[in-house]
Each structure stands twice: as structure tokens, then as C-alpha cells.
Amino acid sequence: MAPGGTGEGHSVVVEVNGVVRGARVPGRRLLSDFLRHDLRLTGTHVGCEHGVCGCCTVLLDGEPVRSCLTLAVTVTGRAITTVEGLADGEEMSPVQRAFAECHALQCGFCTPGFLCTATALLRDNPRPTEEEVLEGVSGNLCRCTGYQNILRAVRRAAELMAGEG
Q1: Which of 59, 68, 78, 94 has the fewest C-beta atoms lying within 10 Å of its C-beta?
Q2: Which CATH architecture has domain 10-85?
């Protein structure tokens, strides 16, 4: 039985970052808690616990979702990518490299959610306009950076993915 649960629980089996993982969890276990506590993938951060801040954003079958609003039992059999799965082995993804290069983080708490959001944005729209970048990340909150370096990093990631420098 998973920590904090009672009774038998529910079996949740998912592909996380390319690896099939699973645990027995209470029916009310949030995906964010399943990832952090049951699977020990602590890169997914939990901020507001109301789906407002975007810190807990992960990719579910490639689409950004708020893991603090998603029940773990609803994702069984699906594929999840967390911030830990964005890199290719030891090689950072273009989005991760751009965030580091453009100093698009300060405390880093919101960064995993921004990285997952930007990854999906650039997959769907490899050459976004300024307005599309702003709209694409508008669901994620940052209390430190003022957003300019985050927006710059998303544009830089698009350049890196296009092979431009």
C-alpha cells in the first residue's frame, strides 16, 4: 500500500519518461503526489495546489496538464513526461539549454512547469511569434524573473531546435 493511503488502493501503471512504473494508491491520490511520493520523481513541483501556477505541469501523452488537478488513477496506461525526462541522457534538451543560457530562472521553483509547457509549445509551433510565446506560457506563474528572460529562452529554444546557432 502506498504511504498515506488506506485499504487496498488502486493499481496505477504508467510509462514515465520512457519507463513503465507503477504503484498502488488511494483513489484520491493526485498525479503530482503519485510522481513525487510514490515514484520519487521530485522534479515536478507543487505550488498552489489549485491548478493556477503551473509549477506542477507535466506532459500527459505529450500534452501539458496540471498534475495537481489530475487524479493518478485516471492516467493508468498513458505516457507521462516530467522535467526529468526532457533531457536525452546527460544531454539537456534545447529548451533546458536555452533556459540556462538566457538565465530564465532564479529560484527555479516554477522552472519544471515552464520547461514542460515550452517543450509542448515548440513541438506544436516550432516558430512561434512573440505573441504566441507570451500566450503559450501565460498559464505559468513566476514570482522572481519578470518573465522577460523566460520569453527570451523560449525564442532561443526555437532557434536551437531549428539549428540556428
Answers
A1: 78
A2: Roll (3.10)
Instruction: Determine the CATH number of domain 94-161.
Output: 1.10.150.120
How far apart, in Å, are the Cα atoms of 98 and each of 36, 66, 79, 92, 156? 26, 23, 25, 9, 6
Q: Strand 10-16 vs strand 79-81: parallel, antiparallel, or unpaired?
A: parallel
26 vs 28: CA distance, rounded Å: 5
For cell 521530485, the residue is 42
Instruction: Provide CATH 1.10.150.120 ranges for the chain.
Output: 94-161
Least confident of 10-14, 44-48, 60-64, 125-129: 44-48
Q: Could you give the residue range(s) of every CATH 3.10.20.30 domain in the chain?
A: 10-85
* E-assigned strand segments in 2-123: 10-16, 19-25, 57-60, 63-66, 79-81
Q: Tell me the pTM.
A: 0.90
CA distance 150 to 133: 10
Q: Assign residue 9 a region: left if phi > 0, alpha if psi is -120 to 50, beta otherwise?
A: left
pLDDT digits (tens, 9 = 90+) for 129-139: 999 999 999 99
